[in-house]
Each structure stands twice: as C-alpha cells, then as structure tokens.
Amino acid sequence: MKLVIVGGVAGGASAAARARRVAEHAEIVVLERGPDVSFANCGLPYYVGGEIRPRDKLLVTTPARLRERFRLDVRTRSNVESIDRAAKTVRVRDLDTGREYDESYDALLLAPGATPLRPPLPGVDSPAVLTLRNLDDVDRIAARVDAAARVVVVGAGFIGLELAENLVKRDRKTTVVELQDQVLPPLDREMTTPIVAALRERGVEVLLGESAAAFEPEGGAVSVTLQSGRRLPADLVILGVGVRPESRLAADAGLDVGQRGGIRVDEGLRTSDPAIWAVGDAIEVRDAVTGGAVQVPLAGPANRQGRIAADNILRGADRPPARYRGTQGTAIVGVFDRVAACTGAAEKTLRRLGLPYRKVYVHPAHHAGYYPGAEGMTLKVLFDPATGRILGAQGVGGAGVDKRIDVLAVAIQAGMTVFDLEEMELCYAPQFGSAKDPVNMAGFVAAGLVRGEHPQADMEVALDGPPDDRTILLDVRTTKEFSEGHLPGARNVPVDELRDRLGELPRDGRILAYCQVGQRGYIATRILLQHGFDAANLGGGYRTFLLHRPG
Amino acid sequence: MKLVIVGGVAGGASAAARARRVAEHAEIVVLERGPDVSFANCGLPYYVGGEIRPRDKLLVTTPARLRERFRLDVRTRSNVESIDRAAKTVRVRDLDTGREYDESYDALLLAPGATPLRPPLPGVDSPAVLTLRNLDDVDRIAARVDAAARVVVVGAGFIGLELAENLVKRDRKTTVVELQDQVLPPLDREMTTPIVAALRERGVEVLLGESAAAFEPEGGAVSVTLQSGRRLPADLVILGVGVRPESRLAADAGLDVGQRGGIRVDEGLRTSDPAIWAVGDAIEVRDAVTGGAVQVPLAGPANRQGRIAADNILRGADRPPARYRGTQGTAIVGVFDRVAACTGAAEKTLRRLGLPYRKVYVHPAHHAGYYPGAEGMTLKVLFDPATGRILGAQGVGGAGVDKRIDVLAVAIQAGMTVFDLEEMELCYAPQFGSAKDPVNMAGFVAAGLVRGEHPQADMEVALDGPPDDRTILLDVRTTKEFSEGHLPGARNVPVDELRDRLGELPRDGRILAYCQVGQRGYIATRILLQHGFDAANLGGGYRTFLLHRPG
Q: What is the pLDDT of residues A128-173, one digit of tens each?
C-alpha cells in the first residue's frame, strides 16, 4: 500500500502519523507546498504580539522528526500540480529546483487546507497589505510591525480580533474594519456587544458595517479607502476576511466540489473517487446540528478527520468505515480580559433555515458570588421548543466561559435536552463554580419555558417600548435600579411589593415582567400568573436589553 | 395545601422557594433548628482563612428575604422533636423560649442535613476540639484560630484539606491526620500524590494511616495522642472525619432508613410514608453509575433534589412525578495551586463491587504547549472494557482540571463512551485548550484499547520490576530521560532507534513498553506488534509510575 498525502499541516500530519501507527509497512509520502509541516496555525497572532517566543515554538513538529519517528517520506516545498486519477499518479513540482515528476499512489489523501481571501480591490497587492495563514505570512508581518505605528485589520472574525489584541499589546494604533454590523460573525450580534466594548476600551477603533474599497500606496505606507469614502492611513494592513478551501486541485481532477468550494466527501471522508480521501479546511462538512453542508475551518476537526481518513484508507474494506460525525463549529476567542465562545447553531442560522427554536439568556457569575473574584458572564442557549433538544449555545464574559461552552458542546454532541442541563452534576467548590452552575441555571430557565411553567417573551419585542397598547412592561427591580436605567416605557413595581400592589396592574392586558437578569422577573411572572394575570417574563432581563442596545 | 419543611439550608431552602413559585397560595412553613437559613456551607474554610470577608457574605439569603419575596413562614431556632404521622403533625420546640407546639401538615419535607461525626474518643468534648459545619462552628473556630499557633486537622477529606490550606494562609503550623493511606478518600490513591506533595511543599505535616486516639487538655490547648503513640501538641483541633445523615427524626417516626443511616426515598424523593418527602445530605441516593445505595453529601444534588421534591409535592398526582436521577459524586477541591476533582465511580469502588473496568491515564497540558503558562494535569478515565461506556474520571493538576472533569461528568450523565470522547469538539484557542483536547487524548488512548489497536498493561504490574521472567520492561524514552530515573529493571531503547534495534529484543517473551506519558510507548507498541512481537504499552508512562511511587 502506498499512501500519498497532499498537505502536511493539521489534517495531513495527523493522518500521516496515524497511518504509520496503523500500517508499519505502508509507504507513506507527504507532499507539502510550504517549508514547514504541522505548525501552530492558531498561535500566529500571539507570535505577532510577542506572547509566543521564540519562533521555534510555532513548529509543532518538523519534517526530520516525522521522518525519524514515523518513517514518513516528507517532502516540503513540493507542490502537487495535478492528479491523474486514471493512472493514479500526482504531478509534483519541487519549488526549490523547479523539477517536476510523477508520484504514484494506491490511495491519495488531500489535505491542502484553505487560503486567505484577498478581495480583488485596487492596491490589494501592495507589500503593506498582508494576510496571516502560515509562517511565511507571520514573518512578513513581523518584519513590518515594528515600524508600523498604525495598523488596519480588515475583518473582525476570530483571527482579526486576536490580531487586534496583539497589536494593541505592542502599542500599535489599531483599527478594525468589518463589513457586517457586528464582530465575530459566527456569533449572534448581541452576544458580541461586550467584545466590541473591550476592544474600544483598549483604544481599538472598531468600524462596523464598513469595508475596504481600495488601498493606495503612500511611501512605504498605504492609505485605505473605505466604502464610506473615509480614508485610513496605515503602515500595515492585515486582511482577515476569511478563507477559501484549496480545492482547485480536486476540482481540476474532476472530483465533486460543493457550492462553497469545499471538496465533497462521504461520511468516511472519501471523495467521489474511491481511491481519494480528503480532510481539513479544504472539505465540505456536515453541520452536526442542522445537517447542512458547511465550510468550517477548525483545527480540532481537521486533526480528527485526519485520523479517521487514515483508518479508513489503511484498514481495508473488511471493516466498516470510521465515520466523521460532522462539525459543530465549537470556537472560542480571547480578547483582552474577555472571552467569547460558541458551539452548535447560532440563532441567525436557525432563523435563516426556518428551524423552530427558543432561546434563553442567563447572566451568572463564573463561580460562587461569595468567593472573591467572581466574574460575570452571559450564556445564551438555543433549543427546540417541542423537545427541548439543545441546538446551540454562546457565551461571553471572562473566566469560565470556555468551560460552560465545552459542557454545552458535549450536551449537543450527546443529543441532550434542556432537561438534562437541569440535572447536570458539575464540579462545585467556591472558586470553581456554584451549587447551581451557570449551565444548570440555563437549564432551569429553558426547561421551565418548555414545560410551560415559565412563559417568556424575547427581549426583541420590547426594545423600543411596549409592543402594543394592551401590553405593559413591568420592571420588578428596586426603585433604585429602575432609576438608573430601564426599558423604554416601563413601569416599576419591585417584586417584593408585587403581591400588595396587584390592584395597580391591568387585568385585561398583558404584562411583560423583567428584572436585571431574569430571576426576579420569573418570580414575578409566577406570582402574576397564579393571580390570574396574563404575564410573561422578558427573557434575560435588563442585561439582555443592554446587549441589544448598548447605548 | 400546607407544606412543612424541616431544615432551611440547601435542599430545604431550594424546595421552599420552588414550592412558592409553583403554588402561590400554598401555606409553606420552614422550620430550621439553627439561627440561619441557606448559608454558604462550602465557603466556611475560606472564611477561616480570611479569603471571604465580611461574615455576611456567607449568608446566601436571610429569613427576612425569604419571608418578603416568597411569603414563607420561616421559623429559625425551631427544632422538630418528633413526627406524628397518623395525626400529620410535627412537634416543634422553640429553642429560644423552650416552648413546644404541634404544627400540622398536608405534606412534610425533611431536609435536616447531616452532622459532623465526633468519634467517641477521650477528650473529644474539649473546647479546643471543634468541627466545621455551620456558622456557629465557624465562629467558634474563628474565635480560637488567631491564638492557635499549632492546629491539627483530623481527616483529609475535601473540607479537611481546604481547612489545611486556609490555616497555612494564616501562618498556622498545620498537621493533617488521616486514617486511610491517602488524602481525599473519594479519589484513587495515586491521583492524590500531587496533592500530598502540594501540602508538604507548603509546610503542612501530612500523617497518613494514622488516627487520633485521645485528646488531653493542657491549659487552653490540647495534646492529641495518635494511634501510633505519637503526641501532637495543638492549640486547636478540627475534626473533619465525615458526616452522618440527620435521620433520627425520620427513624423515630418509623420511616425506612438505609444501612448507612440515610432516609430511604423513591425516585420521586418520597419516603416510605406517602405524605413525607426527604432531600439532601439526610437521604440515601442511588449512585448514578453503579446503581448502589450511597450517602453523598453535596450541595448541588441537595439543591436539585429540593426542586424536584417541591414539584412532586405541589403539582398533584395527575402529573407523573419528577424523577431524581441519582448522584454521580462530582466533586472538586483546590489545595494551594493544585486541583483535584472526580466524577462517577472510582477504581477502588469498581474493584470492590467486582465490576469490569479498564483505565487510562493521560498527562497533557491544560492548553497549547506553545502558548505561555501551560500547566500539566493528569486525567484518569475508567470505562467498561466491552462497550467503552465511561464509568468514572478523576483529574489532578492546576488550571483546567475543573473543565475536563465537568466535560467527563456530562459524558457519564449522557451514557457516552470513550469513542464519543475521541470525537468531542471542544473550544480551542491557544490559551484555552489544544486542537486535541486532554479529553480527546484520553478518548484516543481508551478507544484504541477497546478496539484492540493499543494493548495496554496497567502500571501496577511493573512497579517493582518485570512481573515475570518472560517479560521485559522497555523504556523507549531518550537515554537522557532514562538516566534521570526509570522503572526498576527496565531496558532502554529510544523509540526513534527502535526499528533499527529490533534484533536486541526477545521474540519469545513479552515486551511492556513505556515512555514519559504514554504516547511514545504507544508508537513503540504499534511498531513492535507489527513486527511480530508480543507487546503492550504500560499505560500512562513514567509519570503514572511516579504517581504510584512518589519516591
């Protein structure tokens, strides 16, 4: 058996090492276009910021190590130009010598990754307009960043924001330009409000709903013209507007490629050619929640895909193929002292697909409030209103957000419901959590909603005041809290006075109660319902309002 | 409906608040023996250490708040002396006035908690020998600790070790005495090795396999005589040797009580009397993994049980009862900069019950190694060797242990297998995790074992050298690593030289390979197997050896 692997970074390197462990006697050739294998892609922004030093730390492994330990025939600077599927050969070009040759295969694994998008704008090829994907890129940025007082980052995705943080740590004046009306497009907009605030607090200029239209060289610098006409002088521009799957090789060879450009594979990660498999950022995957075909460039899935493909290639047809279960899109980003993370479907995705869902927000502390250092967070959980099955979750805050999103990621993987969240038995000591963990709290709220005990309205209906004439917004916080800010048109009856002041409330209309985070609103709603009022809780309270309307 | 609740701390207070939300018009009486309701039990050691200040922070809520918000009839300093099940009344004694009276009920909920054990040893009633369970206790300890230069903590459970840490923070000379040969008895012994080391590094004297036999007052101080005959002078002794369920009231009333003294309840938390329910530390629960009847005093389960019991009491017989699913025993403790946590069944429990299991150890960093600040941890995962179902997990290390044990707790709750661990898609950015998360790593190792790709022997067979004449211990680390310490009787062939030195190895015996953490041992095992040797990996490598034999 001779296995040829195109690409030696995440999926390719994982597949190669796994292949050797499975098949000691197979011939395994790894063809990598770049000079490095298996480098720490996700560490690049932190190398720009100086957090990671020396540069060697970015090398997860080296060609020499792979040769020695796994007896892999690793060839870097080797570009695969084409595939001859009938002959089962690939055409390889040695980028150092220019020599071309054919390499035969019994099985071919494509792991070419993805390339940063460079929109075809005037001046985009200026030497001061860079992208960040590999070590060559990071060297180019590092060479310029010392002298770059003003940096513009185009694109406010995960890498764009990590770059912004790291540029600020190096005291660069940093502007982030994002086409959408929010940062971190995989998350729902309101959940990104604290991240925008964190960026602005640290002096990052964040321009939303704005895009770059042209880049004009000015000496060694560049002037960025925005769609709005504004011009931003910059010494360095970094484009972080997404990646496109490197599927040209596959497409040229006639393999099936999806609408978004990803190589199409089956559950066993085999392409439309039975002798060719594909993994990583170059493939189209199944969304584990919605079932749709998506492009999700993430390191974890790429590594797991590499293992699965290697197993399926080398273990022969007598075993049922290992199955890739799809991608949930679990992702996280740290921006200064704040953290945002997500897993599963976003609300915007569910809405776009027309899938039924409900949502809850909770705003708990990351550990017991009575122990010093508790940091607040917001968790949003999306679920099926009929069954309670969890569809997605997002978190924003500080410490402990990663833990809760991981817990919720597992719950989604397991097909659990909001009723299961109520019952989760998680670690509790005062410095680690609470007897009622944030995840339990989200479960209580959501399960109460599904069971019908806890009628809720989404905050969106009340952002501009009562949605209609027969509805009143009832703020059940203290008069002091109310006086410091409240929903437009709201009336104030503190929850602890509510039972004595029921006579002030309309019996012929609807009452939407709210408090700061939702708990007193819930208690008020239960009181009102049991006294015969038509009432619901405005989910997530005033804090959720402030996420939608940061003022 | 009139509900009387005996006990107003965790389970009782949760039940009372839930009951009011469910039934606005019910009469709800809470009878609490102590002066406080719902206090932060788990924060008490940190109040001793001065981390939590002022004392008010320990009060999660107050009787006044419960009366105001939930219209509860809360009576503190009110001891329930007896239950008349036929008349449906309880006899209440007002501890301040001495007055006794009968209170009738339609439904009775018992949430009396547990009492610290005070072994009947000579001198145990000395005023310098205290326990820690409630605010009265913590006041007594606080009153003595300033003047107590030497403190002996008897019992090295979770609270005992939290106390030890907090006493050291206050510069008390602290000795911990533990009857068992390990600290933290719910964990397996080897997993507690780093915790013992942390205690000793900070100057705590840890005496294992030792117990207190007598306490002799000496002025205001006390001399502790140990079973071994050794005497420890102390200004303060704190007993943390466990708790017993407060089930006398229930037993006197003829309710079923389990062998360990816990009140017996059904899945709906109803006792053997259909008008009486019970929750919290006083009840016997079902172990969610083994199915056995156990006593597990934990705050999270108590709170959830309170909610469930309230629902079942107040929603009437027309709805199916809410079901308590059992307790997993998820628990965590921080000891200085180290953390230990567990969930599900321990190895010792599985062995005692004769249940089939296998185990794996991994020793990963808590986040990407290339990002600064990565802290090491050890994870142990126990699973069914036939199906791969996860039975238990333990972790010890620093940052990120809580997250992995929470993830594994959810996996156990969901009935997941080690194959599911392989596929988990968890948060990855360099400061939060790794593309292959520690949980994935444990899954890879365990799944390889179940699939038969990765034969493993437990480290226990090799602690004293090769287990028999036909077995060799093969250290596949570098010669430098080998020279710094290795298993007794091991031979050294570095993994990267293995293929060239196969001739040195016996074809008629068995080879147990190992490295530092298990990964190179795994690669070596795969090489050896495919070259026809009888080989297995010594699970968890030299680090696991050191946990068993800390030198």
A: 999 999 999 999 999 999 999 999 999 999 999 999 999 999 999 9
Domains of chain A in start order, with CATH, are 2-114+244-314 (3.50.50.60), 129-241 (3.50.50.60), 337-451 (3.50.50.60), 456-548 (3.40.250.10)
**CB spacing of B332 vs A437 below 8 angstroms:** no
Contact in structure between B284 and B293 (CB atoms under 8 Å): yes
Enzyme catalytic residues of A = 42
Dump pLDDT digits (tens) for A399-449: 999 999 999 999 999 999 999 999 999 999 999 999 999 999 999 999 999
**B469-472: Cβ within 8 A, 24+ apart:** B470/B506, B470/B508, B470/B509, B470/B510, B471/B509, B471/B510, B471/B511, B471/B512, B472/B505, B472/B506, B472/B509, B472/B510, B472/B511, B472/B512
- Out of B301, B334, B372, closest to residue A425 by CB: B301
Task: Specify the pTM.
Answer: 0.97
Span A184-232, pLDDT tens digits: 999 999 999 999 999 999 999 999 999 999 999 988 899 999 999 999 9
Nearest to B330 among A68, A425, A522 (CB): A425
Phi/psi for B258 (5° steps) reads: -80, 175
**HSE, side-chain direction, 13 A CA sphere, residue A376:** 8
Neighboring chain B residues of A297 at a CB cutoff of 8 Å:
none
Contact A112, A249 (CB under 8 A): yes
How far apart are alpha carbons A154 and A116 in whole angstroms?
Answer: 12
Rounded Cα distance between A396 and B212, Å, is 49
Q: Is the peptide bond before B54 cis (omega within 30 degrees of 0)?
A: yes
- Classify A214 as helix, strand or coil: strand
Write out the E strands in A372-495. 377-383, 390-397, 456-457, 471-475, 491-492
- Rounded CA-CA distance A32/A96 in Å is 13
